Amino acid sequence: MPIRIHIPTPLRQHTDGQAVVEVSGTSVQAALDALGQKYPAITQRLFDNGQVRRFINLYVNDEDIRYLDNLATPVKDGDELSIIPAVAGG
Questions:
Q1: Are 60 and 73 in contact (CB under 8 A)?
Q2: d(C-alpha 42, C-alpha 77), whole Å
Q3: Cα end-to-end distance, the chain, whole Å
Q4: CB–CB of 2/23 below 8 Å?
Q5: For the chain, how long is the longest CA-to-CA vector?
Q6: In this structure, is the dihedral angle defined by the CA atoms of residues 29, 35, 37 and 40, taken in order, positive or negative?
């Protein structure tokens, strides 16, 4: 059972409309690299100079990776990685 990456609606245009993409990897970084290999256009939407863009939040099984090991956070088969764009307004 691979890692399931949940793609938010605004980014689905870069994953051929897929809401969930399954990949393999041992860390968040490896899973996102695998996502980028399948769908190269999404990489520039998620990363800026190798760092996750500041308005993108990543969660592994509902836990914010910023409070874990960031991109080095380990993942295993069956885990779910959610990409959540920050919402701002006023």
A1: yes
A2: 22
A3: 41
A4: yes
A5: 41
A6: negative
pLDDT in tens, 14-29: 999 999 999 999 999 9
Rounded to whole angstroms, how far apart are CA atoms 52 and 32?
Answer: 10
pLDDT tens string 3-61: 999 999 999 999 999 999 999 999 999 999 999 999 999 999 999 998 999 999 999 99
Task: Give the chain's domains with CATH numbers.
Answer: 3-85 (3.10.20.30)
Amino acid at 75: V
**Backbone dihedral region of 33: left (phi > 0), alpha (psi from -120 to 50 degrees) or beta?**
alpha
Q: How far apart are CA 20 and CA 26, in angstroms?
A: 18
Task: Report the distance separating Cα 59 and Cα 10, nearest Å.
Answer: 17
Q: What angle do CA 11, 15, 17 make, to 5 degrees?
A: 85
